[in-house]
Amino acid sequence: MKKLLWLFIVGVAFFSLVLASCSSPAPASTANMKITVATDATWAPFEYVDEQTKQIVGFDIDVFDAIAKNQNLGITYKNVAFDPLLAGMAQGMYDAAISSITIKEDRKKNMLFSDPYFVAGQMVVVKIDNTKITEMSKIEGPAGAQTGTTGADEIQKIKAATLKPYDDIGLAFQDLMNGQINAVVCDNPVALQYVAKNSTKIKSVGGLYTTEDYGIAVAKGKTDLLNRINAGLKAVKSQGLIDQLSKKWLEK
Question: At residue 198, does pLDDT exceed 90?
């Protein structure tokens, strides 16, 4: 009798092990993943350092935080200048990057991109009393843009213009107001915010000169992370959060 009972216990234990080994693992989307995310926190209102809290905040940060919450991603943000950020993504130094990054074919060679989450365009800003520069093509002399951006690309297409690159777009606007450069070219939400804060000194001219999709960059080879980011972004969009954040950050 004892022998039969022992065999029964062994059999149950064996059967339990078989069931455990055959059970499906937890879906990847529910498993916690810790990642390092690069951002250039000089690009208000999309990403910048709050002077009071010293934390990186902005439209992009809220978007990525929402994606991370949906996909159970643990984030460590790294504040990196834009040009080194792109170089670092190409070298796989960071898992991902969100920093008003336009999806471009040449960038796709070095990194993966999520689905688009925002549409922007390049805008020209000049001093309030400037009557010569009325559109992009009429820029002459030194014009400022952030290093590595599509704004810098646009300036380099103009024969009469000379690109003056900046690591911080705020320094470009300072130089513009001080008369050291003739124009600044950058993404329209950033341009409009600087114009609104300095409306007696600078103005925008013309309209939007490009149409550009922002995407979240992901290091090559990290397709699982890309899939999770896209899944989280889809959920965020379906909840109407992009529109809510646009009102929060871009309509001040």
Answer: yes
Token pair for 145: 């843009």
| Whole-number Å distance between alpha carbons of 3 and 226 | 56
The contacts of residue 189 (CB under 8 Å, 6+ apart) are: 45, 46, 120, 250
Confidence (pTM) = 0.82
User: What dihedral do alpha carbons 90, 96, 98, 102 form, nearest 10°?
Assistant: 40
Q: What are phi and psi of 125, to 5 degrees?
A: -125, 135
* Residues contacting 155, CB < 8 A, separation 6+: 139, 143, 145, 161, 163, 185
**Strand, coil or helix: 122:** strand
Residue ranges and CATH numbers for the domains of the chain are 34-119+213-250 (3.40.190.10), 122-205 (3.40.190.10)
The per-residue pLDDT for range 6-29, each reduced to its tens digit, is 333 334 344 343 334 443 333 444
The secondary element (H helix, E strand) that includes residue 171 is helix 169-177
With beta carbons less than 8 A apart as the criterion, state whether 123 and 211 touch: no
